[in-house]
Amino acid sequence: MNKIDDKQLKFISNGLKYFPCLSNLYLYFAASPNITNKGLRALGKSFKHMYSLKTLELHPLDCSKTNINLFRELSCGLKHLCSLKTLLLAPSYSYVVNDKDVESLSLALACLSSLKNLNIDFEGTQITDFGIICLVKSLEKRNDFKRLDLKLYECNIGDEGVQAISELFSTFSSLKTLKLDFSGCLEISSKGIMSLVNDFQHLGSLRILNLNFSELIDMNKKTMSALASKLKYLLNLESLSLNFNYCTILDDGVLEDLSKYLQRYQTSLVCLELEFIECSISDKGLKSLYSIFYKFEKLEKLLLYFGECCSLTENKTNKLFMSLKEVKMLKDFCCMIPEQKEDIEDIRQNLKELLPNVKSLNIDYE
Questions:
Q1: Is pLDDT of 65 > 60?
Q2: At 119, phi and psi to the nearest 5?
Q3: Cβ–Cβ < 8 Å for 112, 83
Q4: 81, 56 in Cβ contact below 8 A?
Q5: pLDDT (tens digit, 9 = 90+) per residue, 167-208?
Q6: What is the CATH number of domain 238-366?
Q7: pLDDT of 31 over the 80 cut
Q8: Which of 98, 107, 159, 348 is most open to solvent, judged by the fewest CB atoms within 10 Å of its CB?
């Protein structure tokens, strides 16, 4: 929907009342600055009639007015969606979400007993540990939860908020997908990260793990080693994505520890994404990683990002590429490396010849 106002949103909301059997609803508001609380309230009220709704996705809502209460207005109706299994909320960056908004949303979520998949984009908002704790309380004691995806980029959360999230894991025994973006949350220390990874022991059913720790200045080798060692509890892992961009303390020891534990997934891992831009990675660390690639029987997608701070020689990057010949199932390869003497186009062409089965190939210099 493009540039609608309250009148049009009310019209849409009134129409939704006549579809009580609707199972999926996807609403995308692009650049609609004329929507106010009045329009959002009408939309929230329409949810009361949607008894069969199983999936609800509300995408970026461009409300530049500072008095817009997005979650608070919608929550009055959300709590009536008794059949809802999947909820995605993604307010735009122009909308200011704070703890009061999350508290209202949490009260509604607590009423959604059928909810199994939650995806909320809090990127750049004003929420703190208090907001996260409210959210966590609304999700407690749900042993059939399947997916949790929280984007918390540059939020004002710290160790207390991270620890609250980790405490959910003991009841989320059936969780299949966990995606947490803590990038730019500068108040998070190694203590918070340790509390998170220590509770991995409860996530034996997890298939997809995506953790973004980019720019966390307290991410150190000890914390990273703990994370790597706790991966052993994730017995069914198929996809792993770890982002440590700009965690400048991390060095070769990180890749050595990680490589050791990754070998556990040689028969299950389908996707592996590792990002170390501006970390202190050298040939030694890279070798420990590519020396295990031949063991991955099902690996189809591989993404590796190494930035200028990584002192990787042309010899070792070439050996990295050569090692991929042993990854028989590889279909998608994306790599960023420090600039080399060889022209990047020549590298791409050589890789196409080396890896004829790879359908998607993207190589670049950082």
A1: no
A2: -135, 110
A3: no
A4: yes
A5: 999 999 899 999 999 999 999 999 999 999 999 999 999 999
A6: 3.80.10.10
A7: no
A8: 348
Q: If you average pLDDT over every residue of the chain, what do you get? A: 90
pLDDT at residue 217, as a whole number? 86
Backbone angles phi, psi at 88, to 5 degrees: -125, 125
Query: What pTM was estimated for this model as a whole?
Result: 0.94
- Domain extents in the chain: 238-366
Other C-beta atoms within 10 Å of 270: how many?
18
More confident site: 325 or 339: 325
CB-CB contact of 152 with 124 (8 Å): no
Instruction: Give burial (CB, 10 Å; 0-12/13-18/19+) of 121.
Output: buried
- How far, in Å, CA of 73 to CA of 85, rounded? 21
Read off the pLDDT of each residue in 23-31 and give the average, rounded to a whole number. 83
Q: 3-state SS string over the chain?
A: CECCCHHHHHHHHHHHCCCCCCCEEEEECECCCCCCHHHHHHHHHHHHHCCCCCEEEEECCCCCCCCCCHHHHHHHHHCCCCCCCEEEECCCCCCCCCHHHHHHHHHHHCCCCCCCEEEEECCCCCCEHHHHHHHHHHCCCCCCCCEEEEECCCCECEHHHHHHHHHHHHCCCCCCEEEEECCCCCECCHHHHHHHHHHHHHCCCCCEEEEECCCCCCCCHHHHHHHHHHHHHCCCCCEEEEECCCCCCCEHHHHHHHHHHHHHHCCCCCEEEEEECCCECEHHHHHHHHCCHHHCCCCCEEEEEECCCCECCHHHHHHHHHHHHHCCCCCEEEEEECCCCCCHHHHHHHHHHHCCCCCEEEEEEC
The CB-side HSE value for 106 (13 A sphere, CA atoms) comes to 18
d(CA 30, CA 1): 6
Distance of alpha carbon 144 from alpha carbon 208, whole angstroms: 16
Residue bearing tokens 């949607």:
50
pLDDT of residue 62: 58
Chain length of the chain: 366
Supply 360's token pair.
């998607």
Q: Which of 97-106, 255-264, 337-346 has the lowest mean pLDDT?
A: 337-346
**What pLDDT was estimated at residue 76?**
86
